[in-house]
Specification:
By secondary structure, this protein is an alpha+beta fold. It has two domains: about 1-60, Ribosomal Protein L9, domain 1 (3-Layer(aba) Sandwich), CATH 3.40.5; about 65-145, Ribosomal protein L9, C-terminal domain (Ribosomal Protein L9, domain 2, Roll). The protein contains four helices and nine strands, in the order ββαβααββαββββ. The protein has helices spanning about 25-30, 40-65, 65-75, 95-105, and strands at about 1-5, 20, 35-40, 75-80, 90-95, 115, 120-125, 125-135, 135-145. The strands form three sheets. The protein has a four-stranded mixed beta sheet. Strands 2-1-3 form a three-stranded antiparallel beta sheet, covered by helices on one side.
Length: about 150
């Protein structure tokens, strides 16, 4: 029986992989734990479309890695979040927030996997985030977090 994995499982599958698994393993372990869903023709088509879009994005990043590295190093991203007067945020800034801010402010498409953060940002102020690009290019992005 085919399953579409929704999460990475070390040594078994990566997110959006389609693999043959035994029905009992799928129904008794993977689905209840939110790791996979049964493959249907519609879902397989959706996954194929998603993978092709991701492949195009990665191909574009590989072609323009040096230019993107220069743009990201010069860019200054400002993210606003709800927080206290003492500089603590109510909700942390995640990789997804940074990807959206870079897309809006610097007009650069990045994936969550390109951003390397030790921990999510929970305070206001200036922060430096490492961006890993294809072909061993790395950039340091300057992110300023402010309260609304």
């Amino acid at each position: 029986m085919q399953a579409i994995f929704i999460r990475d499982i070390k040594g078994i599958a990566r997110k959006n992989d389609v693999k043959n698994v035994k029905p009992g393993y799928l129904h008794n372990y993977l689905i209840p734990n939110g790791l996979a869903i049964p493959a249907t023709p519609e879902k397989l088509k959706y996954i194929a479309d998603k993978k092709s879009k991701e492949a195009l994005r990665i191909e574009e990043l590989e072609k323009n890695a040096a230019d993107v590295e220069k743009k990201l190093s010069k860019a200054k991203i400002v993210i606003k979040g709800d927080g206290t007067e003492k500089g603590k945020l109510y909700a942390s800034i995640t990789e997804k927030d940074i990807v959206n801010a870079v897309k809006e402010q610097a007009k650069i498409e990045l994936g969550i996997d390109n951003i390397k953060m030790g921990k999510h940002i929970k305070t206001t102020g200036a922060h430096e985030i490492e961006i890993v690009l294809p072909q061993d290019h790395k950039a340091t992005l300057k992110v300023t977090v402010e309260t609304k």
